[in-house]
């Protein structure tokens, strides 16, 4: 196995702007490099992390039962050991939740609402290229007992 070095910093902050308005933000910086590679194909996976990633999420309680929210996830580009590059991207998500009773809650999530096409991982010309998730809409009904 070769010699690898990864250095970075990560920070997050969460809080309430008002009693009904919550916010969460995060940022990560990672610098990774291979000093000596035993096998470029094996060690190359180590480089498949973005240098910069950030997220921002907020929710607002509209009524005692209804909460809405939205956010963004962003990442800088990545380059594989084979030299393939995937550009940076940002995806936007939204949610709405309604609490019918203290025990019954319905939540609807919309992920990647603008259907941004991106690659979560890149490898070679025709291998290990993994597209990111497309737009999706999910709903869940939760009953606590």
TrEMBL record:
Keyword line: Cell outer membrane, Membrane, TonB box, Transmembrane, Transmembrane beta strand, Transport
Membrane as UniProt keyword: yes
Coiled coil: none
A GO term for molecular function: siderophore uptake transmembrane transporter activity
Name of protein: TonB-dependent receptor-like beta-barrel domain-containing protein
GO annotations of cellular component type: cell outer membrane
InterPro entries in UniProt: Beta-barrel_TonB (IPR000531), Beta-barrel_TonB_sf (IPR036942), TonB-dep_rcpt-like (IPR039426)
Gene3D superfamilies, per the entry: TonB-dependent receptor, beta-barrel domain
Residues in TonB-dependent receptor-like beta-barrel domain copies: 2-113
Main location: membrane
